[in-house]
Write a structure and sequence with these properties.
Length: 294
Amino acid sequence: MKKGLVYAILAYIAWGLLPVYWKLFGSMLPGEILAHRVMWSFVFMTILLLAGKGQWKAFTQLLTVPRTLLVVATSSLLISANWLIFIWAVNNGHVIETSIGYYITPLFNIMLAVLFLREKPTGAQWVAVGLAAIGVAIATIDYGHFPWVSVSLAASFGLYSLVKKRVAYGASIGLAGETAVVLPLALIYVGYLYATHQATVGTLPTYKLILLLLAGAATAMPLLWFAKAAVRLPLSMLGFIQYIGPSITLLLSVFVFKEKFSPALLASFAFIWSALVVYALASIRTARAAAVQR
């Protein structure tokens, strides 16, 4: 459990600090950043798979089963959309909205479970969803527009998680497959940027270029740490730790990136945080009840 706790904290700290990393490439087009993220993630995962015993064979087999390939392609498009929205939001002054998105993701998952998995949430979980909805409504009024960044991030990652439930493969093989599916699109897009003289990667100073090449590691390592944590920790504990990420992002948005944090937005977060407390307590109660039944 101690190792699992370390892995989980490392993963969520890394995810929380990612806005700082993507801000370094603010001079690049969001699509160009995404393309490089996909390319270097695939390179990094290829190296890891080749270094692991039997991993590369399992990866190639994954891509030969039509049903599995369809699932991987779907999850690939969803996570790519999530990455693109996040990168765009960070480099266009919407970091607060990204934190809202990842705060409400677990609550969005409840809605997906009801719609697609026919699960029956508890009364407390419905209360949590209602509180979160009020928080989003207040944010909408404060922004003067629907917080599409927050909802899109929650929806894309929630649907991504739902699709991932359809197959059973390791985190390494899954990420390699997801990046492999969109790799041709990434290469075509980068080629288009060069052909039309819109590519900006060549204008980066050396240290930023090196950091961009490390985008694969920055993408893969937190995911692998999370996978290691998930098999070592109870789901209830992992549920609490997951809020480290958006909390760090929120602090960065206010104190580092100097984004506006109005009283109305504070009220919005109060409802969302209240929803998370209700949700966490309900999850713990459910987990304890299940343990007693065993």
